[in-house]
Amino acid sequence: QVHIVESGGGLVQPGGSLRLSCAASGIIFTDYTMAWYRQAPGKQREFVASINLGGDIHYADFVKGRFTISRDNAKSTVYLQMNNLNPEDTAVYSCNAKRPLYSYQNYWGQGTQVTVSS
User: Fold this and answer.
1) Three-class SS of residue 81?
2) Residue 105 has what DSSP assignment?
3) CB within 8 A of 42, min separation 6: which ones?
4) How far apart are CA 80 and CA 22, in angstroms?
5) Number of continuous H segments (helices) and E segments (strands) in the chain
6) pLDDT tens string 28-80
7) Pairing of strands 77-82, 18-25
8) What is the rounded CA–CA span in Å between residue 6 and residue 110?
9) Alpha carbon distance 11, 58 (integer Å)
């Protein structure tokens, strides 16, 4: 059974930092591209960042050098370091595991809430 579990969310002041973690089990982690998405209240879910098997990384434009995605294959975990947070970053952040060329092997976590407020 596949489990995708996010952690690390919380309340942070503007300009602060958070590090999100996403632990995967039940999959061969190195077969999967890992990504972070977010959904703010009243908005559609949007892409944040991804990292593939070879370490290629993509970021949404709004990241603007503030976020860093990384993965630890030995721990089957992907991270999202978020710096210089602003209130517009408030959202539920969800982790996605997708196996390239196998569209049915696409898994989501339940998400972790990030709230940026003074």
Assistant:
1) strand
2) -
3) none
4) 9
5) 0, 11
6) 999 999 999 999 999 999 999 999 988 899 999 999 799 999 999 999 999 99
7) antiparallel
8) 7
9) 26
